[in-house]
Design a protein that fits this description.
24% of the residues lie in helices and 19% in strands. By secondary structure, the chain is an alpha/beta fold. It has a single domain (13-269), classed as Alpha-Beta Barrel (TIM Barrel). Bound molecules: zinc ion (ZN).
Length: 293
Amino acid sequence: MPPLRPNLRGRIMILEYHRFGPKDHRWVRAYSSFDHDLQTLEAQGYRPITLRAYSSGHFATPRGTTPVVITFDDGSNNQVKFTPQGKLAPDCAMAHWLAFSRRHPDFPFRGVFFVNPGPGGDSAFAQPRWSTAKLRMIVRLGGEIGNHTLTHANLGRVPRSAVEREIALGQYFIARALPGYKIVSFALPYGVYPKPRSLAWRGDWATSGFGRRLPAQIRWHYRSVVKVGASPAPSPYVAGFRPHFLPRIQVFDPNIGRWLRYFQLHPGRRFVSDGQEHAVDSLPKLAPRSRRR
Ligand SMILES: [Zn+2]
């Protein structure tokens, strides 16, 4: 592959994984396919960053490389699994990525996990005993935790009070496991916005009467909101960047291969780093090309 010239206006893929298992399905990625995805991305010059880094502009992958955000929804056990002794089990996506990054230090672990901490607040990743330890390990190793509501509610189908409760309690239980950690990213369950849409990124919920141990008020303010589909995301450096409406690319065959080929065929549409951080919204929008007559 010839070296790519910096292109701060190009697009960035935010990949979206769900479950993992022995075989590929629409919502399940085989571990072997995940290994292959990481190899392909690394070989084609992609370098992982968190969503927090992407939407704040604070990322500087090496000159000539393209950042990629790798997200995991719903907090299943096969994303991050612990042994009965409380160690990371080898058969989970996180262990596969960590093993890959030991062989390829230019592709460090930067996984972004959108979790539903569940009614009791302790069921992210489906091993209640280890839920807090897992969240802490992800952050310690360079990953990110985002809110995905308490119970994966369809926010377009419940009343406003339930929307507020779902977002507030999802955030509350994540924050309880991660003292001092600021949650800045939110993934819409099913990709559905609440009404009004701004509740997905900013709001507050008065907890009165809900639980004695909760604070009186829970507020949220998120920098990024990600949807479910279906295209590469814009550069955060271009004017008009709208981080509350970020598209993602679902990883299943043949979808992921199609997008990787797209950027091989059209390298000029791909974000290519100049090795430096820039301010969000700092590049003026290009004037639309005048139509040929
Ligand atoms: Zn989900």
